[in-house]
Amino acid sequence: MSLLKFRGRLRSIRSLNSILSALQVVTVVRMKRIRERFAVTEEYLKPVKDVLAGRVQPKKLDKKILVVISSNRGLCGGFNTQILAKAKAFLSTHPPSPSLEKRGGGVLSVSGGEFGIVALGKRAANYFRDRLVVSEFEALERPTFAKIRALWQKVFELNAEVYVAYNAYKSTAVQAPTIVRLFPVPEELISDKEPADYILEPSAAKLTEELFRHYLEARFYQLVIASQMGELAARLMVLKGAVDNSKDLINDLVISINKLRQTNITRDLAEIIGSAEALRGKR
What we know:
The protein is an alpha/beta fold. The chain folds into 2 domains: about 5-15 and about 240-275; about 20-235, ATP synthase, F1 complex, gamma subunit (Pyruvate Kinase, Chain: A, domain 1), CATH 3.40.1380. The protein has helices spanning about 5-50, 80-90, 120-125, 140, 145-155, 205-280, and strands at about 65-70, 100, 110, 115-120, 130-135, 160-170, 175-185.
């Protein structure tokens, strides 16, 4: 390869390295913010969980919904692949029904016995497009409690048993695909013990109903935030690997360019010396 081509490739890889490094910094900052929000939400839900534990009564629902939280973009390794595989395995025991029908706004209606899909993220929506009940992309870009609560209202109005599939954040290198039940009774609120002795006003039944509805909204928001943490962690690992590889390529190219330059200089010197010797011999 010529020296000109080597230098062109070096410029391209250095430019790519700059872009990837910038993305890495942005991802680190976003992940720090998401971690703080998750920690605040976790702390907020603890006392609510203590009040509701053992107070919410289960009920039987024929309809079932699986909320699949993926990402809108790639560059996050196996993040989407593993949660889609987990959801597919979960749905294998609940085959799709041919009686799904479109209703107003292009939303699918769900009849008894069916298992519909609510997709958060373009990857999940594309994968389960034949079973979609609701899909949402924008709320996942910058998730706020107001946006996620509005989405939860759409899911809640379906009056179905709700499961959520998401990548639980364990560490920067590990995101575990997980499926939890959120409605009618979240698994963490099921308790064989007597409910904690709290004074509930105006009435225990009224307060429990309102508090449980709010808990579902906040818990759903927390699951979305947890998935965001997993997505950013996976993206950070991919970007780190890409930046490290680009640095290695830059070092290799610099060495190759220097070797090629040295070879060219040595060849030119040899030609000059040879020409000088030839001229001296003619004299």
